[in-house]
Amino acid sequence: MSLVEIVVVDADASSTSSLSLFVHCARLAAVSSSTAAIRVQLLDPPTLYEAEVSSRQKLRVLDCSGVEYVAAVETALSPVTDAKPRFEFRWSRPKCTLTLMERSEFAMKFCAIEFQATESGDKWRMLLHQVASQQQKERKLIDNKRSRVTQLEALLEQKEELLETALTAKQNTEDCLIQGFCAVLNAKKDEIRRLQDEVELVQRYGVKPTTKKKPAVKRARKATGAKLTSKEEESGESSKESDEDMRTEEDEDEGELKRAKRDAVSAYSQLPANLKSSTVQISSAEYLLSSMDDIIKNEEEVDEATQRGDTTTQVKSEPVSVPQVSRPHEKKARAEQTTPPKPKPAKPTPVDETMDSEEEDILDMLS
């Protein structure tokens, strides 16, 4: 235990005056668990006093054990804490007695320690050595605490730097994410606006919206043998040839249609001016429909006459106020009126005649 300064009351003085004494306590080896003892050194400059406190010195009046008695004395002479001290010390130089008075409603004597003055240099040397060693320990402890405080301060600075770095990285990440979300939302908005514009265009003008063609997904082909590869090549070549044949047929059909259109246009351009005007001028849709009905009726009558074999029946054509368009059906009807029909056995209509009638209808529509 270190050297402790205590404040005592001078019991020999007439007035209450305080003195400063220095006390050092040290534990002695106990003989048994029921016994305890301490050595107390009291320094009242320039004299050194020494005493021994054991459990056998406990008064019978005290309601505690011998070990508790020694512990209470040691605690009283230990370094001062913030708590209120339990005892008041009274020092008498002539008697060399230190009395411990317990603080309560009235002062009550706890114990009295009788010291003996010593002039041994070894005792002084021992006490001073203990004081020096205690000071060295305290200095080491203070140095350790200071180094620990320095380390904690450096750690705190590193923590603040890391925190700032983490916050900066977090802010940058949040900014990147926000920019990415904004870009995605803007792209979605543009796509929605484009689709709305296309829908409005379709609703307004009936134009088909332009759809983006999706790229064809290329499937990974498995490694095949020589036979399979040759079969695949042959099937690919045959499919290519069939595609080319289909394309050539379509091109020929388109060429025939284009040729028919050109022939109709050239025939129309060769007509005289009076016929051109008569063929183009149509007053209204009602007149056109009525003329079409008359033509259909005439054709039906001609068909019925040919089936009956009646040569005397003549088809009457009513005059049409609308200028008539030259049609191949009317030419056939007029030819049948002039020449008497010949009864022929009913034969199924060949495919070529149906094709000719379709081509004639197409030419009529083009003209």
UniProtKB/TrEMBL annotation:
GO terms of biological process kind:
DNA recombination; double-strand break repair via nonhomologous end joining; response to X-ray
Which portions of the chain have biased composition (kind: Polar residues)?
267-278
List where Basic residues composition bias occurs: 210-224
Bias-annotated ranges (Basic and acidic residues): 229-241
Q: Which keywords fit this entry according to its UniProt record?
A: Coiled coil
Positions the record marks as coiled coil are: 142-205
- UniProt GO cellular component terms: DNA ligase IV complex; DNA-dependent protein kinase-DNA ligase 4 complex
- Please give the Gene Ontology molecular function terms for this protein: DNA binding
Region of interest called Disordered, as start-end residue ranges on this chain: 210-278, 302-367
- Report the PANTHER family cross-referenced here: DNA REPAIR PROTEIN XRCC4 (PTHR28559:SF1)
Report the protein name in the record.
Answer: DNA repair protein XRCC4
* Lineage per the UniProt record: Eukaryota, Sar, Stramenopiles, Oomycota, Peronosporomycetes
